[in-house]
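USER: My hope is that you can spare some time for a protein that puzzles me. I am handing you a single protein, as its sequence and its fold in token form. Walk me, if you will, through where the backbone shape changes along the chain. The protein I mean follows directly.
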Amino acid sequence: RDIIMGMKHSILMWIRVASFGSRLVGLALLCLMYGWYGFDPKWIASGMDPDERFGILERHWAYFVGFGFPYVLLMENTSFFVGYGVFLASFPFCILLGSVCDYTDPYAQYMPKKSDTLTLKSNTLPVFKTAQNWTLLAIKYIDQKSFDARKKRSTSASGSSSSTSTSTGSSSRAGLSKVNKDKKTS
């Protein structure tokens, strides 16, 4: 009986630790997101593509967490409507600060030379790596399906559908007639 009670208390303790840890990670990511909000309009106006912006955020993550911390502190310590009201009122100030501040300045003395990529890689926090991998996997899957469909259409258009079964041949002929109808309408 004591063993079961001990296991119950141990499980409850781990649930509390996991709950606290997930809350802490959530607040850190929220700080990072609000730091992103301040600099993103400047980066878009300067013509940076999303991969460059993700790279900057991953390399200078500590600066952006610190930049977003006051906004998260205001929002977490007030009620929902008051917190978002204060954030919406201070958001233009956040954008102005983002357009004036230089995020590379605090890192200047600690950043390695251009040739030392190992140290530069160790300073990055790959926040977007999982999302990028899943997106690339989805695009690859979608592209493969569209490639297969184009290949099937081109095969049926070249007349090699006679070697396939009659059901496949009839469906490819139906697809070919649909393509011909689309060409006539356009």
User: Anything to note?
Assistant: Residues 59 and 123 are 6 Å apart (CA to CA). The first helix runs from residue 2 to 45. The two ends are 79 Å apart (CA to CA).
